Amino acid sequence: METIHLTGDTLNNFATEIRQTTGEDTSRCYQCGNCTAGCPYTEFFDYPVSQIMRMIQTGQREKALNSRAIWLCATCETCSTRCPCEIDVADVMDGLRNIAYREKRFTERDIRTFYEAFLTSLKHHGRIFELEIIARYNLKSGHLLTDADLGPKVMKQLHFLPKRIKGRDDVARIIKRFMEKK
Ligand code: SF4
Ligand code: SF4
């Protein structure tokens, strides 16, 4: 593979956008592949995470933001801990997902539905309320009886009423700003 090393001064627009969004300098990535080698979900990705990093370096914005990988990433942070350049790769994936969400690029409809149920619960209570997330997700996704057999086990772990935190109005403002930001 050809070697392109972009310094901080020559970052393309997309790499600059990612740097501004996440604080991560993807130009330091030298394509060693350690992140991909440790990624437990790589077999389900359309592009391995190291290739996503390359897309950022080379300004392939459309390709990266339309990938399934950014939605299937579980934010497990294995990639971040393995990167010899100390790039927080998981944070870069999260940043890509946030940009894709704002631009309404949804390659994985169910994951978007879950993501929105999660954010809505956070906005309402200042913390997540699992039962509400499950209900919203199942209703909106149409998977009403998915994993119903797990219900009795899961129910023991769940709170039936949301626990609200102090400062939830501040959290709601943050989430609202995030969801509306273009
Ligand atoms: S954070 Fe995402 S990309 Fe990184 S190892 Fe985990 S699943 Fe793979
Ligand atoms: S581990 Fe770090 S340097 Fe290696 S390919 Fe992944 S992001 Fe690039």
Describe this entry's structure for a reader.
The structure is a single chain. This protein has 182 residues and is an all-alpha fold. The protein folds into two domains: 8-102, no CATH class; 109-180, no CATH class. It contains eleven helices and no strands. Helix 8 (109-125) packs antiparallel against helix 11. Residues 1-5 have low confidence and may be disordered. It binds iron/sulfur cluster (2 copies). One iron/sulfur cluster is lined by residues 38-39, 41, 49, 73-79, 89-90, 93.
Concise account of the structure shown:
The chain is mostly helical and 182 residues long. It has helices at 13-22, 34-38, 49-57, 61-65, 69-72, 78-82, 89-102, 109-125, 130-141, 151-155, 168-180.
Structural class: mainly alpha
How much helix is in the residues? 40-55%
Number of helices: 11
Shape: globular
Our estimate of the beta-strand percent is under 5%
Low-confidence stretches: 1-5
Query: What is the tally of beta strands?
Result: 0
Taken together, the total number of domains comes to 2
What's the main sheet like?
none
State the distance separating the first and last CA atoms: 35 Å
Q: Output the radius of gyration.
A: 18 Å
Question: What is the string of SSEs from the N terminus onward?
Answer: HHHHHHHHHHH
Ligand species: iron/sulfur cluster
Overall mean confidence score, pLDDT: 82
